[in-house]
Amino acid sequence: MTLQGKVHKYGADVDTDVIIPARYLNVSDAALLAEHCMEDIDPGFRERKRAGDMIVATTNFGCGSSREHAPLAIKECGISCVIAHSFARIFFRNAINIGLPLLECPEAADSCEAGDMLEVDLSRGEITNAIRGVTFTAKPYPEFMMGIINAGGLVERTRHRLEESRS
Amino acid sequence: MSTIAEKIIAAHSGRDSVSPGEFANVACDVVMANDITGPLSIKEFRKLKVDRVFDPNKVVMIPDHFIPNKDIASAIQAKDIRDFSREQGCVYYETGRAGIEHVLLPEEGLVGPGQVVIGADSHTCTYGALGAFATGMGSTDIAMAMATGDIWMKIPHTIKFVFHGKLQPWVGGKDLILHLIGDIGIDGALYAAMEFHGEAIRSLEMDGRFTIANMAIEAGAKAGLFPVDEKTEAYIAAHPSKRGYTYKSYATDSDSDYARIIEYDAGTIEPTVAFPHLPSNTKRVSDSGDVAIDQVVIGSCTNGRLSDLQVAASLLKGRKVHPNVRCIVIPGSQRVYSEALDQGLVKTFIDAGAVVSTPTCGPCLGGYMGILAPGERCVSTTNRNFVGRMGSPQSEVYLAGPAVASASAITGHISGPAEVSSTQEVQAR
After folding, report:
1. Span B95-123, pLDDT tens digits
2. Using the beta-carbon criterion (under 8 Å), do A159 and B49 form an inter-chain contact?
3. Which of B78, B102, B198, B411 has the maximum number of C-beta atoms within 10 A of its C-beta?
């Protein structure tokens, strides 16, 4: 699967409070959450974003709260993937579980600027920046996690498991 | 040869041993969610088309974040977890008989040594203070475990933190963990299990240990564990397992089992403050400079326990909150509230000019009960000071322990307890 989109670039330690502030967590509907995505770190994000766009950051993206509302809001905004040096662990799990692709690739994150157009080959983990003429390969997922991704997320995987145990 | 975390996970995944980096399906003793994360969990649980949770005694729902309901939308979320709990017969504590989940579960005897606890709240790591492997996850993970009773985990490596020496007066668990995070950074223990050791750690009562384990996530860790000792055992004896569980304590075999060992001289650690906007942005309170403040919050799953309120009351007794400051005190549970009343602490706070609230997470995450306006500053005993955490993105949160928070409430600027307390008070401690 190939993704294409423009870069929205951020730095280190983008926390879940700025991705979706808790003052909006009295609902869990993704469309309502998306209206406030990145509001406290980048008030212009909502107007600027286009379907397929990518979020690029440095270390520890998604640190802080366990709120799954954060990757849900990002996904609902049409963001096709997040590329970063590293991810905080709960955010990482949540994104895999709900089907928001994450790519760990410091070189790719460092080599692009806001507004660059990137192309991402998800199956190969390849990130291409045509304007700058560079391609990088993200750290591959462990086999165990690929099992969850290939099953279509954790809910599907669990449903499958439960069906197997019943039969 | 294994660490505490590895032994607990092995015992819960039917293996003799596990190694860092491996994956395992781990059986859970407690699966928890709250009024923010629970509704999403329930939605995902329904997708599985299973009728019942795997074990209603092990599924726990706690309304605490926006409780008592702050608006209609929060009331609907609280109703969601209440209705689900009634339908499934799972463990549920109603407003008025509850408290902040991470204060409530230990005092209710729902968690203990050697258990695996997962919760849809990042501060679930608090129960590591009791020697449990406890970690936060998202709503979907929790939903799946509600149905199956197990969860996938990548086995974390363990970092040992040793605090040598004796603590200075007024220095508590909060100062140690802030000092540590200031040293290693907010991703300094990313994906790791932290283990806490040393003379200063052994000297801490359980409340101080809960504070430290609570903020393991603020260093990026998956869990923060304490070895079980006589203080843990005394706590468990006073808060026995509600479900008749026999707990098991584990110890790490040798120092060679750790990925790293980091040591501190606790005797040199002073009351510490984390400046905006990261918990790692720490300074000694004596190096804080002149920072005028508008609000103080004393409470939360980090520092809302009885001994936290006792420290605060010891400084506020016979003194007044500064005219420019609102001081909000929030006992972490109904039990803490009741004990604070019995001990006259609530009267002390009210006489000093503070607000005393019913238990809630409220202001810690910018929910309600103490939201900050643009430009306002708050010294808070909570756990995060990210941009917009307590209200306006133009406000500032300074993290500290209850001693610094209450001293600052009195002076109106960030202050150490030494600035307001007499020599007698210091000696009495």
Report:
1. 999 999 999 999 999 999 999 999 999 99
2. yes
3. B102
